[in-house]
Structures are given as C-alpha cells and as structure tokens.
From TrEMBL:
UniProt KW keywords: Cell inner membrane, Cell membrane, Membrane, Transmembrane, Transmembrane helix, Transport
Protein name (database record): Phosphonate ABC transporter, permease protein PhnE
UniProt key word Membrane: yes
Species the sequence originates in: Dickeya undicola
Membership in a protein family: Belongs to the binding-protein-dependent transport system permease family.
Domain ABC transmembrane type-1 residue range list: 92-275
Compartment annotation: Cell inner membrane; Cell membrane
Gene Ontology MF annotations: ABC-type phosphonate transporter activity
Membrane topology qualifier: Multi-pass membrane protein
A GO term from the CC aspect: plasma membrane
Chain segments annotated as transmembrane: 21-38, 98-118, 144-167, 256-274
Source domain of life: Bacteria
Length: 287
C-alpha cells in the first residue's frame, strides 16, 4: 500500500474518532443537563416502575376455569367480566367512525392544499406562504389541545374529537403531500405544457399519477394513527371508547379497564392488518 495513502487514511480515521468522541460527549452532557432541568431521575424511575405492574395486575379479571362459560350473574365467568360489552362495542364503532370520517375529510382537503402549497404548481407565492404558516400552526397544536378547546366550546361528544383530529391531520398530511409533489419529476409536466395543456391538466395528468400512491399510503397510515388518537381524545370527553376507559378508571372498575384496553388492542391490531394489506394492494397496483 502507498505510504502516503496510509498516512492520509490514518489521519482521517483519527479525525473521525476525535469528532465521534466529541459529539458523543456533547450528547451525553446535553442529556444530563436536560435530565437535571426536567427533574428526571433514573433512580425514581427504577424504584417506581414495579408499581406499574401492580396496577396492571389489579386490572386483570378474576376468572375461574369451571365457571368460565357460566351466565352473566356468576362471578368468575367471561359473561360476568364482559357485562358492559353492549355499551363498549357501540363506543368502539363510534371511535372507528370518528377516525374514518376525520381521515376522509382531511385527505380530500389536504390534497387540494398540497397542490396549492407546492413550489412547482405555479400557485401564487402569497398563497403558498400563508398556507404553510397556517399548516405549521395546525401541526404545532396537538390533537389533545384542540380537543380540550373544542370540548369547552361544543361540550362533551364526538364533534370536538372530529374537529381536533381533522385539523391536526390536515396540517400533517398537507405537508407530506406538498413535499411529495415537489419531489415528483417535472418531465411529464413539461411535456404536457409543450402540448398546450392548461395548469390544471398538467397537475391532473403530470403530477397526480406520480403522487397518488404516496397519497394513498399516507392516508391509510393516518387512519391507523387517528384511531389511536381518537381513543386518547375520549379521555378528555371527546367521545368514543376513550371516554368509557376514563370512566372505568375513575370509578375503580379495574376489570372493565382491562376489558376496554383489550377491545382497543384487538381493534387496533385488526385495523393495522387490514389497512396495511389495502395499502400494499393499492400502492403496488398504482405502480
């Protein structure tokens, strides 16, 4: 090996090691400083963590194998554990409808706003700047904060949850969509422009076919996220199964807490599997 190259290689390697050490030290110091400012304590976390499992064990139902399939009046049976299923199942359905409605409306609005906010769609600069500032504000406010404000304005129910999910979803999806539009190839657009196509035709036939699989993929992913978020929003009175979960926690109905959580986990798992399969079929079919 060339001696000059060997010396150069060793010098670069030594420089990389020094830089890695310095940056690692900076990150450790920042981590320690952030922990001090936020009063984060590993010892407290370690000693308190077992209490989580204590609470979790309290939520487990008391089931007896011999009485497992007895009627709902027999303590220790599945029917006794699930006596609130007639209330919880409609709430699960309400939560799913809430997430679906908010996602569908948000996707439709976000597609339009995405084309208006993109740099390569010939929209006026003032509109692009205003839209991006508004979208940044919508993304900055978490769904929970929106839900609290809307609950105070509209009262307890699904309307606050719907509005909170829709606003935050529009802010997030529009950013993803206009970035995808800006990353699309300009060749089809230039070809259509050379043929005398209008601006709308260039967007419709030049850009939309390229970004359609991405839009569908992000939309399915957002549906999964919105279902989880709608469960959390119910904790502040925004409707759905989350409200039932909070009620059970407040009333110390520990067995019903576990049943509600089990329903949420099952529905989320099914939704993830179905949306993942649909996303793959649509995206691969779109390609």
């Amino acid at each position: 090996m060339n001696p000059d190259f060997e010396r150069y290689y060793q010098r670069i390697r030594a420089q990389q090691k020094r830089e890695s050490f310095v940056w690692s030290l900076i990150l450790v110091l920042l981590y320690i400083g952030a922990g001090k400012l936020s009063e984060f304590n590993l010892h407290t976390l370690w000693t308190s963590f077992p209490h989580f499992f204590d609470y979790l064990s309290e939520t487990l139902p008391v089931l007896h194998w011999r009485l497992l399939f007895a009627n709902g009046h027999t303590e220790g049976s599945l029917a006794y554990w699930g006596y609130r299923l007639p209330i919880q199942l409609p709430l699960i359905w309400e939560t799913l409808n809430l997430a679906l409605a908010a996602t569908l409306l948000s996707v439709a609005v976000s597609v339009v706003l995405g084309f208006l906010a993109a740099n390569n769609t010939q929209s006026p600069p003032g509109i692009r700047f205003t839209l991006r500032a508004l979208l940044a504000f919508l993304r900055t406010m978490p769904e929970l904060a929106w839900a609290v404000m809307f609950v105070m304005a509209f009262g307890i129910g699904v309307i606050p949850g719907f509005l909170a999910l829709a606003l935050h979803t529009v802010g997030c999806l529009t950013k993803l969509f206009y970035e995808a539009i800006e990353s699309a190839s300009e060749r089809p657009v230039r070809g259509l422009a050379a043929c005398g196509a209008s601006v709308f035709q260039r967007m419709r036939f030049g850009l939309w076919p390229q970004v359609k699989p991405i839009v569908l993929s992000y939309s399915f992913m957002r549906l999964e996220i919105n279902f989880r978020q709608s469960t959390i929003l119910g904790l502040v009175g925004a409707g759905g199964i989350g409200q039932e979960l909070m009620t059970n926690i407040k009333l110390d109905r520990y067995d019903q807490v576990s049943l509600t959580m089990l329903l949420i986990i099952v529905v989320v798992s099914i939704l993830d599997a179905l949306s993942g399969r649909l996303r793959r079929q649509v995206v691969e079919g779109g390609k």
